[in-house]
Amino acid sequence: MSAAGAGLSTHVLDTARGRPAPGVRIELHEVTGGERRPVTEATTNADGRTDAPLIGRGHLRPGTFELTFHVGAYYADFPTVSTPPFLDVVTLRFTVADAGAHYHVPLVMTPWSYSTYRGS
Question: Which GO terms describe its biological process (predicted)?
Fold first, then answer.
């Protein structure tokens, strides 16, 4: 993909309810030499996505990043979730090797498990 399509995006899917997960707070950090530097913060919309890419086209660069999803508050009203919840904060650390490619890093979750993948 060309640099015009490059960037970083995410979305959150709630497989326990079978729908996107609105209202999940997300933080993005860049990790360099063990130090975490905040890049941006967003909250998912009704489609489980952020309103804008976390890193826009042409601004992505190679490096290590962390996406932190605050899922405990989202599942607070789920009927079988304990207090405190089993999953509260999910952090995904990943590496961008090709700044000219688009990186889409979704979170697929339930109150007790999660997975991710590199999407398009």
Answer: purine nucleobase metabolic process
Nearest alpha carbon to residue 5 among 62, 64, 55 = 55
State the binding site for substrate: 11, 49, 117
Contact 90/114 with Cβ under 8 angstroms? yes
Binding residues: 11, 49, 117
Using CA atoms, how far residue 98 sits from 5, 24, 36, 56, 105, in Å, is: 12, 28, 21, 15, 14
Q: pTM here?
A: 0.92
Q: Are strands 25-32 and 35-43 parallel, antiparallel or unpaired?
A: antiparallel
* pLDDT at 63 (0 to 100): 97
Class of domain 3-116: mainly beta
For residue 66, pLDDT over 90 is answered with: yes
